[in-house]
User: Fold these one by one.
Assistant:
Number 1:
Amino acid sequence: MDLLSATLTLILIMDPLGNIPMFLSILNKIPDENRRRKILIRELLLALLVLLIFLFLGRHLLQWLNLQPQSLRIGGGIVLFLIAIKMIFPPPSGGIMGQFPEGEPLLVPLAVPLLAGPSTLAMLILLSSNAPEKWISWLLSVMSIGCRPFQAIRTLRRDRRGS
């Protein structure tokens, strides 16, 4: 797997377009727009930090737990299957993710599991376990995904000032 295919795979697993309504519904409860922007940036940075931690330390976590990459693949597939079942048959208690806690989000549910979810983390662990010599490609892939939202925020801010 090369840089482009790893980046595209991570983008597809993270589902950024599918996360937009969740982010909007959670951040809509915060009345101050500047505070919303700060929360969004904080959550994006926390998600990026979690992704980088799992990219570099995930292989060692697998060794410490004495797990094989095949078991992680099976577990990641089961998690994706359960998420798909919840999407098809949502629980009556409140959507796919259940009820959101009141107040300002911190790490949960925006950074983890929406951005840095179990499938994304499993994919990063598998990438670093299967080809540790390509760590620079995996780092560039994660950083390119992690920096895109900040570019979008800067563009939106510039467009608002211009109009």
Note: The CA atoms of residues 48 and 143 lie 8 Å apart.
Number 2:
Amino acid sequence: MNRLAFSALARNTRWARLAGRLLAGLLGFLLNLPGCGGGPPVREVERVLATAWESYARRAIRPEGRVVVPDRQGGTISEAQAYALLMAVWAGDETRFARVAHWTREHLSRQARFGDHLLAWQWGRREDGTWGVLDWNTASDANLDYALALLLAHRRGWRPETGPDYLAQARGVAADILALEVVRLPGGEPVLTPGNWHEASPPYLINPSYISPAAYRLLFEATGDGRWQELAAAAYPLAGRLSQRLGELPGVGLFPDWAQVCGDGSIGPAPHRDSQFGWEAVRLPWRLALDHLWFHRKEPAVLLNAGFLPFFRRQWQSAGRLPAVWSYEGRPLVAYESPVLYAGLLAGALAAGDRDFAAQLAGKLLSFYRQEGGQAYFEAPDNYYANNWAWLGLALYAGRTGKF
């Protein structure tokens, strides 16, 4: 190489190194910027998500892929398996995803016994000391999340080592959700019931937190079955009615944990079920937020801004804290806080475009995070529900919950 060429190469190399340092500095600056509306820095949220997932996976997921739920005497439920799959796919953990998916299909699938691809909802220790399915009935939210996780894994380009690919598995589950867990009112409106054990005719029991229009739309893209579009079209009118009135109970914008849909489409309290805005209903804003994020739908903002977010903004501004459970009419039912509530509200604020409120809620949610004794967790290491939903709420905030 002659001197001129070498000199030019050296200059180019120095410029490349300088440009690299400048780019790295800019990237570091951006990653340390506060999040939405002055909230926690993205880098800090990313660090928490990575550490919390790794700790949860080591603590709660057995090597074979079974999630251990502490309050199930060491057993598991289909919901827990589905949550682990969603977190794994958004954490980019293909190895653990494959293990959890394989165990779930091998041990919870109803295919061998009943011929469908839905999941039995409960697995654990039987009275005779053996381990296996305790209840073959289904939970439609777990099946929806399971199908969604499989579909997202396929969209990431992941493939199982054995058996049908993830797309084929997702399609099988989706078809059986429609066949066994969806009913129609006399007027033709489709309704997602809580499981295969639904009533034979109206009134139908429903769980509003199972409403998942983003999942419906993505499953329509994957299957071409127009019934998913019908469910998506019915989702917001139903959610709106649920937030306005529950039989004789006046609403303030909150959603009930459970409700009953009559044949004429009217909504009422479900007998022997909670009507409060509690551990069930708090999940609905997160599911609506995915519809805003993935499909740029305006309905989540319209619905949540009609009553839900104004109600909680007022409570937050007046007290600076929010009790975990509320009556349908808007009275606090407990004094303690929970990261689960803040995760749901954070998702709702993001769906409605309220960046300032979202930033405050993200900061509050992070206040529940702990690193102690070699573990990372939210609120308590054995609080399965809090650890899952705090992670999912922060993942949405950090932009990690994509559809690929």
Note: Residues 1-34 have pLDDT under 50 and may be disordered.
